[in-house]
Amino acid sequence: MALGTSAFAIDNAKVNGGIKFIYQTADWELTSAEKASGLYETGLFKQGNINNPISGASYGGAASGGLSFSVGGTADLTQGVSAGAEVQGFTTLGLENNLVIGSMQGSRLDVDDAASMAQLWMATTLGKTTVKAGRMELDTPLAFTEKWNLIKNTFDAAVVLNNDLPNTTLVAAWVGKHNGDTTGAGYVAHLNTYTTFGVSGAYAFGAINKSIPNTTAQAWYYNVCDVADAYWLQADAKLVGMIDVGAQYANLDPKASGPKDSSIWAVKASADVAGFNVYAAYSDADEDGTASFANVSTNDKTKIYTGDGSIYMDGIVTRPGTEAFKIGASTKMVPGVSLAASYCDASDVSVQNHDISAWDVSASGKIGALGLTAIYTQVNNDTDGTSQVYAGRDNDTLRLIATLAF
């Protein structure tokens, strides 16, 4: 055996990581009850209210921020066997209760500065079948990893992928634990705490087929043990080279005797016109349902078309009884800069006929290896008959993001 070689040599090793900084400032319009409680509106770029009796949140001009880092790597351990690991960490930079009212992660950290193992997995491939087990990211319609915030959610899971059928990927997965924050408050993840997914884990089975030219069709079934069964159907196609269309339908059947089935359907169309990509989407959730179709791990983001690319509306459009439409456009006509704007309106016929709308405008680009993004959103609510967070208030939010990957 030659010097420096081994039957268990590690090959194709790759190391990657990154740093992300987020500063977010919001100007929330206060209700009369909140003003009477002693809260006050401070406006954008202000620290905000420290003590808020509603959900512990900070409205009336709250700012939040923080910095996260990740370091990870993958390697081939031997023929057909690979492994990966990643550590993610977070720090407030000492800004909490100073420049900002709190962190983007809220109270989802054990301490203000912390780190944890985000991924640790092994995988083996035999023929056209790959088995992967451990802590990992997932990307399925109803359970997926969100990376928009400083800390991402991951899963303790086992996944089998098979490509024996032509143009088809079959997926089978068991999810045991996750670190998602299921309150829907936008914190995404508990950095150091992994809890049982659902009551006793969940199974997921999927099929993704590309047999029809320029078309991707997928079907998913979920069994969240002792909680609910769900399925998701979706097809996306490109027509005449410049028009994209898509359709979605999802259903969730709770296993408890009281709650009713929930369902939602959505369609979208987009086209490339004169250097712009323009699109429109519509979704309709059954008003007799009892559950939304947000990410089960976080109860926040959604894969439904009308929820794409929004700071706040993604948590609204899939609620039971909600009809939503969204229009938007994006362009890269400015060299080195991506610009996007969208408008979404959601009307909930099941809860006092309230109507919520939002504008989202974003710009992103790079200066060398440094990625910069600015997102501005304005939310308008026409009625008081909504949850406490959105009750009869307008909201202006600016989110600034800087990333450095290596």
From TrEMBL:
Keyword Secreted attached: no
One Gene Ontology cellular component annotation held by this UniProt entry: membrane
Domain of life, per lineage: Bacteria
Entries under InterPro entries matching the protein: OM_porin_bac, Porin_dom_sf
Pfam families, alphabetized: OprD
Keyword set, alphabetical order: Signal, Transport
This protein's record includes keyword ATP-binding: no
Annotated Gene3D superfamilies: Porin
Assigned protein family: Belongs to the outer membrane porin (Opr) (TC 1.B.25) family.
This protein's name: Outer membrane porin
